[in-house]
Amino acid sequence: MEDNDSGPLDVPISALEHYSYCPRQCALIHVEQTYEENVFTVRGRIAHERTDAAVPSVERGIRTLRGIPLWSEQYGLHGKADVVELRADGPYLVEHKVGRRRGRHADIQLCAQALCLEEMLGTTLTAGAIFYHAERRRYEVRFDAALRSETARAIQAVRAMLEQQQLPVAPNDARCRHCSLLDVCLPGVVSDGPHLRGLQGALFIAYPRDEANED
After folding, report:
1. pTM of the model
2. Residues 130, 18: Cα–Cα separation, whole Å
């Protein structure tokens, strides 16, 4: 996490997808600096490394750039774009994901990339795409007013989380099963108030003094 003394904290673009999926997961990664890998995160990391390592190319008259640094002073964002296609009608973002499409979480991340690229190039992007390797398919994402507003709210929420340095409550639902941070988050424990208080109390049991063994 970066500390910006001259203004609000910068928000990592990747944190927006984490927040949309689970605010607690986002805080564990970006506030507590905690990260554990499982088979899903390893697959994702390898896929992104391959994408970033690929050299620029031209296919069907479209030049493709990879691993492009992004930033926005207006929104206080920084991150990286997997792929930027330089089309005749303007730049087109393509984000790579290793799994299958589940919800709009990645759409917010892609829209944040678009906000950065618009500011950097002085242009307007109307759409981009997310390529899901498990499906071998692109899903086009329209950067309409609703998604832009949702992304702006997510940016504000993540920034507030980074500034307050607090962990949200654990959801303890279906999202947790495949989360790489399951053993760190312990949603089944921290979401159960009486159980958690019992465990906390057990840490501080006062044992009677054994005077016979005292010096």
Report:
1. 0.76
2. 16
